[in-house]
Fold 6-carboxy-5,6,7,8-tetrahydropterin synthase.
Amino acid sequence: MKVTISRKAHFNAAHRLHRKDWSFEKNDAVFGKCNNPNFHGHNYGLTVSVTGKIDPETGFVLDVKVLADIIREEVEIPFDHKNLNLDVPEFQDLNPTAENIAVVIWNKIRKRIQADFDLEIVLNETDRNFVTYKGEE
């Protein structure tokens, strides 16, 4: 019997969608106002879900406190109130789109979760725009 537990979190961060190898005109055409040279920000919502078998001793799939600590250490501390392009090493050469942010978060959390558990990340960039990542299929 597999069960999914989920934990919600949030962080506030600035970013700029921009490719260094493209001209300003091409960046502007593709990314529009998200290519603002002075950056822009979002109040990101994050839902992390872990699916696995219930431990018969604890009754947990994973202690939610442990999951909360992982999210705090891997996402909230390094991303919250940061400029993703300038302050977060994973985005030095990676365009911080919602899709790329979700994959980076998944990879950071994945290394802290048992291999036999499934992991899903839902990243809300706005109330209407969100990305879901479950790992490589």
